[in-house]
Design goal:
The chain is α/β, with parallel strands linked by helices and 254 residues long. The protein has one domain: Rossmann fold (3-Layer(aba) Sandwich), CATH 3.40.50.720. 45% of the residues lie in helices and 14% in strands. Strands 3-2-1-4-5-6-7 form a seven-stranded parallel β-sheet, sandwiched between helices. Helix 1 packs across helix 8, helix 3 runs parallel beside helix 4 and helix 4 packs parallel to helix 5. It starts with 9 loop residues before the first strand and ends in an 8-residue tail after the last strand. The model has no long low-confidence stretch (mean pLDDT 96).
Length: 254
């Protein structure tokens, strides 16, 4: 058995029309998986799916808003009708509508962050875990952030949600491990995506981050995609309940 082969596996990747999510979907598809591209905008999802199919890979676009439970239920149901039961779920989509101190954080923004970054992952995981347990095989991967390992004076609510994702993975790993189902998180540092554009487009912030990072650069989406293949494949078969940090060494540098 090839350690990184995902042939015959079905994967859902949320937030996969761009950035880290797109890279994860591309890497999974190139490893042999049948991939469902999902985000809010149907046209953007279809563009990614078409590009993958042009490579001879298997991909379908199924748009969904992660904040809407009914849409997530439909996402899983449509995936089953296209490709069968889900083998790998990647919860990548997230929201961060507020930048600033916690004292000024509007309740509406906090609630949106908690629902989109934690509750949606809880919903999705519970939609696919029973099938995985029945087959005694499956993986759930939540894209967290190193913000969940550190304090922040400007991204507090986002960091709270990402820390909660790590704990959600630990809880689910404990619950579903006896059924041979694995649940882990990936915690990227600053990556050059549209989602993080406000950070890396600021020359001072970028220079400061690069200087503090042992590898002296910020991440690119393709720095993360391969990690998902590792966790979804036979190569990661003895890893569960863990957070894999991919930050160029920033967190070890203090």
């Amino acid at each position: 058995m090839k350690a990184f082969d995902l042939s015959g596996k079905t994967a859902i990747v949320t937030g996969s029309s761009r950035g880290i999510g797109r890279s994860i979907a591309e890497h999974l598809a190139r490893a042999g998986a049948r991939v469902v591209i999902s985000s809010r905008k149907a046209v953007a999802c279809e563009e990614v799916a078409l590009a993958l199919r042009a490579e001879g890979l298997q991909a379908v676009a199924i748009p969904a808003n992660i904040g809407d439970k009914a849409q997530l239920e439909s996402l899983v149901a449509q995936t089953r009708s296209h490709y069968g039961p889900v083998d790998t779920l990647v919860c990548n989509a997230a929201s961060n509508p507020y930048y600033g101190p916690m004292a000024s954080l509007p309740d509406e923004a906090f609630l949106k962050i908690l629902q989109n970054n934690i509750m949606s992952n809880h919903w999705l995981a519970n939609l696919v875990l029973p099938d995985m347990a029945q087959r005694r095989d499956g993986t759930v991967i939540i894209v967290s952030s190193i913000g969940g390992l550190k304090g922040s004076d400007t991204l507090g609510a986002y960091c709270i949600s990402k820390a909660a994702d790590m704990q959600l993975a630990r809880n689910l790993a404990q619950e579903w491990g006896p059924h041979n189902v694995r649940v882990n998180t990936i915690a990227p540092g600053l990556v050059r995506t549209d989602f993080a554009r406000a950070l890396w487009e600021n020359p001072e912030t970028l220079a400061r981050t690069e200087q503090r990072t042992p590898l002296r650069r910020i991440g690119e989406p393709d720095d993360i995609g391969g990690i998902a293949v590792f966790l979804a494949s036979r190569a990661g078969a003895f890893i569960t309940g863990q957070t894999l940090v991919a930050d160029g060494g920033l967190t070890v540098a203090g």
